[in-house]
Design goal:
5-stranded mixed beta sheet; 12 strands; single chain; D-Maltodextrin-Binding Protein, domain 2; 9 helices; alpha/beta; globular
Length: 246
């Protein structure tokens, strides 16, 4: 999908944006191949503000940073949390949203909380995410099952092949809780910062500082002119602004 183009941008080379879809409600792909979702719509608005064409590229999560480093695309916009480890590989723009992660269990599960070690329990996570890092660090006695996509994770959860899953809150609502037979377990999780980072942001190659500055300027204009809040309320009934006070 390309953004609507201002006339002065018509001759510029498109900026290619990588995203791992589907990851509802942030990134989704319509039957015609075009992209939609909160993050997609937000980045499209930022691209318009930059007066640049943006072209979306589907890229699996496992290879999304290597693909950026190999110059397959210009930046990543794919619900990527800003973490210390990732800062060693990419240059992040300013965070543009933040969401907690949730534990989800079947309605009939006998698991009441996650305060124990969950030894032997089958926990589903998406591979190489902050949720994967959190579960790996805090529940070493559990049987952790890692999935390439959130859809694959949801499929196994629905089929009864998992005891629990740990994923971002909006995704948990969309692919499990809102579809019935599942419930949130415990409180939302957003700490420690060493794992969950500073929020979610677009990721660029370290050498592209000028492009990141342009992106940040456009992001702040989109926040100031009301576009950000309009899109947020279109997709969510709660505030997802990142905490800039930390």
């Amino acid at each position: 999908m390309m953004t609507m183009l201002p006339a002065q941008a018509a001759d510029q080379k498109p900026l290619k944006v990588a995203s791992d879809v589907p990851y509802e409600p942030f990134e989704m792909q319509r039957p015609d191949g075009t992209f939609t979702g909160f993050e997609v719509d937000l980045v499209n608005a930022i691209c318009e503000q930059m007066q640049r064409r943006c072209e979306w590229v589907k890229q699996g999560w496992d290879g999304i940073i290597p693909g950026l480093q190999a110059r397959k695309y210009d930046f990543i916009a794919s619900a990527m949390s800003v973490t210390p480890d990732r800062r060693k590989q990419v240059l992040f723009a300013d965070p543009y949203y933040a969401v907690p992660s949730l534990w989800v269990a079947p309605d009939d599960s006998d698991i009441d909380d996650v305060s124990g070690d969950l030894a032997g329990k089958k926990i589903g996570v998406q591979r190489a995410t902050v949720q994967d890092n959190y579960v790996t660090q805090h529940y070493p006695k559990a049987e952790i099952r890692r999935y390439a996509t959130a859809d694959d994770l949801a499929t196994d959860m629905s089929a009864g092949r998992l005891d629990l899953t740990f994923i971002t809150g909006p995704l948990a609502q969309d692919v499990l809780i809102n579809r019935g037979n599942f419930r949130q377990l415990g409180e939302p999780v957003s700490k420690p910062k060493s794992i969950f980072g500073d929020g979610i942001a677009a990721a660029f190659r370290p050498r592209d500082r000028a492009l990141v500055e342009q992106f940040n300027q456009a992001l702040h204009k989109v926040e100031q002119n009301g576009t950000y809040d309009r899109l947020m309320h279109q997709y969510f009934d709660y505030d997802i602004h990142p905490d800039t006070t930390q």
